[in-house]
Amino acid sequence: DVQLVESGGGLVKPGGSLRLSCAASGFSFRNYNMNWVRQAPGKGLEWVSSITSSSSYIYNADSVKGRFTISRDDAKNSLYLQMDSLRVEDTAVYYCARAGISTGYFPDYWGQGTLVTVSS
Amino acid sequence: EIVLTQSPGTLSLSPGESATLSCRASQSVSSRYLAWYQHKPGQAPRLLIYGASSRATGIPDRFGGSGSGTDFTLTISRLEPEDFAVYYCQQYGRSPLYTFGQGTKLEIK
Fold first, then answer.
1. How many CB atoms lie within 10 A of CB B12?
2. Chain B residues closer than 8 Å to A37 by CB
3. Is residue B60 pLDDT above 90, yes or no?
4. What values do phi and psi take at B76, rounded to 5?
5. Rounded CA separation A110/A102 (Å)
6. Angle formed at CA B19 by CA B16 and CA B21, multiple of 5 degrees
7. CA-CA-CA-CA dihedral for A34, A74, A24, B37, to nearest 10
8. Beta carbons of A45 and A37 less than 8 angstroms apart
9. What is the pLDDT of residue B97?
10. Which of helix, strand or coil describes residue A30?
11. Fewer beta carbons below 10 Å: N end or C end of chain A?
12. CB distance A18 to A87 below 8 Å
């Protein structure tokens, strides 16, 4: 079964840094584009960042450009999100999601999410 | 930037009824690049429909998607108790890479 398990969330002060991880299993991780999507408290879903297979291309939402860095380690079947210069408005549940090949690159499997709280 | 506007914001219906959810794009979107998700509190979002009308694996045929251009619709027939959730439309491929609508909350009347 496909599994995505996020970790690394927690409480951090504004201006601080945090690194999220997503451990993937049950599929050939190296062949899939991967994404981070977040949901702030009481708000809707917001796409954050994407990385293609082989890390050929990286895409970021304007709201995180220059502050967040997505990366992957195919040998470890892992996806990462390095979050720097964190702001209060980055408080959210962060989901790791696989871009399905048969679903036209729409995310078809998601993790349960990890909560990031930015507060002084 | 493409903006997706969903309506209504909240839809109150009873089990057994049918639901019609709308997603309007600020610019024309290829049908290939429009999807619908279901999201329940504390759970991972679930892909329902991709390519505007193709059901994802394991999705019952009570869920149907249609539309083209700027107007897309998710229809849920014979509502079951587990269908009450928040539904999002999403587009792929135009800057930004992915965009979500603001969501429609389907609640039990």
1. 13
2. 45, 98
3. yes
4. -120, 115
5. 15
6. 165
7. 10
8. yes
9. 87
10. helix
11. N
12. no
B2-38 confidence digits (pLDDT tens): 999 999 999 999 999 999 999 999 999 999 999 999 9
Q: Where are the beta strands (DSSP E) in chain B?
A: 4-7, 10-13, 19-29, 34-39, 46-50, 54-55, 63-76, 86-92, 98-100, 104-108
Length, in residues, of chain A: 120
**A103: which 2 tokens?**
């679903």
Asked if residue A101 lies in contact with residue A32, where contact means CB atoms within 8 angstroms, the answer is: yes
Measured CA to CA, the distance from residue A30 to residue A6 in angstroms comes to 17
| Interchain contact A72–B (C-beta under 8 A) | no
pLDDT tens for A61-112 read 999 999 999 999 999 999 999 999 999 999 999 999 999 988 888 999 999 9
